[in-house]
Fold this protein.
Amino acid sequence: MPAEITDKLQKIAESVGVQKMRRHIFLCCDQTKPKCSDKEKSLESWEYLKRRLKELSLSGEGGVYRTKANCLQICESGRLSRRNLVSLVHA
Ligand code: FES
């Protein structure tokens, strides 16, 4: 990869705080074709995750990042995802 592209990507990564990232949560959310979990429930979980990380000062500089992962095709059900999510946020 050319050096100028590498430098540009490095600057972008620094600007979004990638170097401070301690955890990264990939949440099945807003699925194009929901298979395992209900789309509306996944969006509720996303909003809960956002709110809870902010309340605990874990978002951004707190080092916990989140990404909507569409569908990872590994869920048992949305309720299981929610329970795991609650456990993660309370850990
Ligand atoms: S919604 Fe499909 S793996 Fe989570």
